[in-house]
Amino acid sequence: MQNGVRSLQRAVLSRLFDHLQEHYGVDSARDFFVDGRLNLHQVDALLAFKSDSQLDELRSALDRLEHGTYGVCITCKRPISRDVLERDPGRSICAACEQGFNHGANLEMGHAALNAFEPHALF
Ligand SMILES: [Zn+2]
Q: Is the pTM for the entire model greater than 0.85?
Protein backbone atom coordinates (compact mmCIF):
# COMPACT_ATOMS: atom_id res chain seq x y z
CA MET A 1 0.00 0.00 0.00
CA GLN A 2 1.38 3.42 -0.92
CA ASN A 3 2.06 5.98 1.77
CA GLY A 4 -0.54 8.36 0.41
CA VAL A 5 -3.19 5.69 0.55
CA ARG A 6 -2.20 4.76 4.05
CA SER A 7 -2.62 8.29 5.32
CA LEU A 8 -6.01 8.54 3.61
CA GLN A 9 -7.01 5.28 5.23
CA ARG A 10 -5.90 6.67 8.57
CA ALA A 11 -8.06 9.73 8.04
CA VAL A 12 -11.10 7.60 7.22
CA LEU A 13 -10.52 5.24 10.14
CA SER A 14 -9.94 8.08 12.53
CA ARG A 15 -13.21 9.74 11.51
CA LEU A 16 -14.96 6.40 11.73
CA PHE A 17 -13.63 5.76 15.20
CA ASP A 18 -14.67 9.19 16.46
CA HIS A 19 -18.11 8.60 15.03
CA LEU A 20 -18.41 5.20 16.68
CA GLN A 21 -17.28 6.58 19.99
CA GLU A 22 -19.52 9.59 19.86
CA HIS A 23 -22.70 7.90 18.66
CA TYR A 24 -22.39 4.34 19.87
CA GLY A 25 -20.09 4.56 22.85
CA VAL A 26 -17.58 2.21 21.25
CA ASP A 27 -14.45 2.36 23.32
CA SER A 28 -11.82 0.03 21.95
CA ALA A 29 -8.18 0.96 21.46
CA ARG A 30 -8.13 3.98 19.20
CA ASP A 31 -4.57 3.56 17.91
CA PHE A 32 -5.11 -0.04 17.06
CA PHE A 33 -8.19 0.86 15.05
CA VAL A 34 -6.82 3.97 13.37
CA ASP A 35 -3.53 2.34 12.39
CA GLY A 36 -5.50 -0.03 10.20
CA ARG A 37 -4.45 -3.08 12.14
CA LEU A 38 -7.97 -4.47 11.98
CA ASN A 39 -8.95 -6.14 8.75
CA LEU A 40 -12.26 -5.25 7.13
CA HIS A 41 -14.01 -8.25 8.68
CA GLN A 42 -13.02 -7.07 12.13
CA VAL A 43 -14.15 -3.55 11.29
CA ASP A 44 -17.47 -4.96 10.10
CA ALA A 45 -17.83 -6.89 13.33
CA LEU A 46 -17.52 -3.60 15.19
CA LEU A 47 -20.04 -1.98 12.89
CA ALA A 48 -22.58 -4.78 13.22
CA PHE A 49 -26.06 -3.51 14.05
CA LYS A 50 -24.93 0.07 13.68
CA SER A 51 -26.00 2.08 10.72
CA ASP A 52 -26.45 5.71 9.82
CA SER A 53 -25.58 7.72 6.77
CA GLN A 54 -22.17 8.87 7.95
CA LEU A 55 -21.18 5.44 9.15
CA ASP A 56 -22.23 3.92 5.84
CA GLU A 57 -20.32 6.59 3.94
CA LEU A 58 -17.14 5.96 5.88
CA ARG A 59 -17.51 2.21 5.59
CA SER A 60 -17.86 2.42 1.83
CA ALA A 61 -14.85 4.76 1.73
CA LEU A 62 -12.83 1.89 3.22
CA ASP A 63 -14.04 -0.33 0.40
CA ARG A 64 -13.03 2.24 -2.19
CA LEU A 65 -9.58 2.48 -0.57
CA GLU A 66 -9.32 -1.28 -0.75
CA HIS A 67 -10.24 -1.25 -4.44
CA GLY A 68 -8.10 1.74 -5.34
CA THR A 69 -11.06 3.92 -6.29
CA TYR A 70 -10.97 6.18 -3.25
CA GLY A 71 -10.88 9.89 -3.96
CA VAL A 72 -12.41 9.46 -7.40
CA CYS A 73 -15.87 10.92 -7.90
CA ILE A 74 -18.33 8.03 -8.34
CA THR A 75 -20.31 10.11 -10.79
CA CYS A 76 -17.88 11.89 -13.12
CA LYS A 77 -14.75 9.79 -12.30
CA ARG A 78 -12.66 12.89 -11.76
CA PRO A 79 -10.43 13.14 -8.70
CA ILE A 80 -11.94 14.74 -5.61
CA SER A 81 -9.63 17.43 -4.26
CA ARG A 82 -7.42 16.54 -1.35
CA ASP A 83 -8.64 19.26 0.99
CA VAL A 84 -12.26 18.24 0.39
CA LEU A 85 -11.28 14.71 1.41
CA GLU A 86 -9.43 15.97 4.44
CA ARG A 87 -12.51 17.78 5.63
CA ASP A 88 -14.83 14.92 4.76
CA PRO A 89 -12.99 11.61 4.36
CA GLY A 90 -16.17 9.68 3.54
CA ARG A 91 -16.85 11.81 0.51
CA SER A 92 -17.71 9.92 -2.71
CA ILE A 93 -18.67 12.71 -5.11
CA CYS A 94 -16.87 15.87 -6.11
CA ALA A 95 -18.13 19.34 -5.30
CA ALA A 96 -19.20 19.99 -8.88
CA CYS A 97 -21.32 16.85 -9.01
CA GLU A 98 -22.83 17.54 -5.64
CA GLN A 99 -23.97 20.93 -6.87
CA GLY A 100 -25.20 19.40 -10.09
CA PHE A 101 -27.11 16.78 -8.13
CA ASN A 102 -28.75 19.31 -5.89
CA HIS A 103 -29.64 21.47 -8.81
CA GLY A 104 -31.06 18.52 -10.74
CA ALA A 105 -33.00 17.28 -7.72
CA ASN A 106 -34.54 20.70 -7.20
CA LEU A 107 -35.58 20.90 -10.80
CA GLU A 108 -37.13 17.48 -10.67
CA MET A 109 -39.14 18.35 -7.61
CA GLY A 110 -40.37 21.50 -9.33
CA HIS A 111 -43.14 21.86 -11.84
CA ALA A 112 -40.94 21.95 -14.95
CA ALA A 113 -40.26 18.21 -15.09
CA LEU A 114 -43.80 17.25 -14.18
CA ASN A 115 -45.37 19.49 -16.79
CA ALA A 116 -43.06 18.23 -19.48
CA PHE A 117 -44.42 14.68 -19.36
CA GLU A 118 -47.77 13.00 -19.32
CA PRO A 119 -48.16 11.54 -15.80
CA HIS A 120 -48.11 7.94 -17.04
CA ALA A 121 -44.79 8.57 -18.81
CA LEU A 122 -43.10 9.09 -15.46
CA PHE A 123 -43.72 5.54 -14.33
ZN1 LIG B 1 -17.92 14.48 -9.99
A: no
Instruction: Give yes or no for a contact between 32 and 12, defined as CB atoms under 8 angstroms apart.
Output: no
Give residues whose Cβ lies within 5 Å of ion ligand 1. Answer: 73, 75-76, 94, 97
Domain carrying residue 25: 3-72
Q: What is the pLDDT of residues 48-103, one digit of tens each?
A: 999 999 999 999 999 999 999 999 999 999 999 988 999 999 999 999 999 886 55
- What contacts 11, CB < 8 A, 6 or more positions away? 85, 86, 89
Flag whether 88 is in a domain.
no
CB 47 within 8 A of CB 59: yes
CA of 74 to the centre of ligand 1 (A): 7
Structural domain count of the chain = 1
Span from the CA of 98 to the centroid of ligand 1 (angstroms): 7
What is the per-residue pLDDT across 59-70, written as a single tens digit (0 to 9) for each?
Answer: 999 999 999 999
d(CA 12, CA 67): 15
